[in-house]
Write a structure and sequence with these properties.
heterodimer, A: Ubiquitin-like (UB roll), 7 strands, 10% helix, B: alpha+beta, two-stranded parallel sheet, globular
């Protein structure tokens, strides 16, 4: 008996175009890592030197943050939803690294 | 980075008018990658006499704009009610987290005559510390 073998590629990473200000880098995230680890990779790539916890990855609208930070990331296609409890990222998806809060005072 | 005197004055006028002697205010000095011109950008923010917070919607819109236009935020300036200094909150929640970012604090809500010597200025170092700067070293024509 012959066994049907899927020809669909098995992905272990997802590539994203990440912007910090007007600077852009292509970052590769390992599937199964947490959003927090993706945030840390981006913070490191853009050489952010202070309070990394105040910066986060947001989707192209600049509003929607990748949350929760403890969730694992999954690679999704098109408008396909991610598996339950995971955060989906599309291949070549544009993401924005920015400060989530900016405040000051005496 | 040298801040032109007219840019410094415009930033102070903007913060003074916004704060009305009662509330703190914040502006960003934004350099256009196309022209090299340093503009004063006044974000939507909420403020009180003891602090400010930039509107999250404005943060999102400006971040999206930066992905399409070469705009670099070189410095942030904000006012304090009294003395100019960098507080713990100022240290922890800046707009930009990369080395060489400049933060400037203006005393007395920016009211009255403010000279470069009256302000407090610091620079984010590679180690993530805020290094005090001689204010007058930031200004040029």
């Amino acid at each position: 008996m012959q066994t049907e073998v899927s020809s669909a590629p098995v992905h272990t990473t997802v590539k994203s175009r990440v912007f910090y200000g007007s600077a852009e880098q292509t970052l590769t995230f390992k599937l199964g890592t947490t959003v927090e680890e993706c945030d840390q990779l981006a913070v490191s790539a853009f050489q952010i030197v202070t309070n990394p916890h105040t910066f986060g990855l947001f989707r192209e609208d600049g509003v929607t943050e990748l949350l929760p930070i403890t969730a694992q990331i999954a690679r999704v296609e098109g408008h396909q939803p991610p598996p339950a409890g995971m955060v989906g990222i599309r291949e070549d998806e544009k993401l924005i690294l920015r400060a989530s809060t900016v405040r000051g005072g005496d | 980075m040298l801040i032109p005197d007219r840019t410094f004055r415009l930033a102070i006028e903007t913060m003074c008018e916004c704060g009305q002697g009662r509330n703190e205010c914040v502006v960003f000095l934004v350099e256009s990658g196309d022209t090299g011109v340093l503009d004063v950008v006044h974000p939507v923010h909420r403020a009180a006499s003891g602090g400010y917070e930039v509107d999250k919607g404005w943060l999102a819109r400006f971040a999206v704009r930066q992905t399409a236009e070469p705009l670099a935020i070189r410095a942030q300036m904000h006012t304090h009610p009294g003395e100019a200094f960098h507080s713990g909150i100022d240290d922890e929640w800046p707009m930009v987290g990369t080395a060489d970012f400049i933060s400037i604090v203006v005393p007395r809500f920016g009211q009255g005559i403010i000279e470069p010597d009256d302000i407090y200025a610091c620079r984010l170092t590679n180690e993530g510390d805020w290094e005090p700067l001689e204010p007058t070293s930031l200004f040029g024509t």
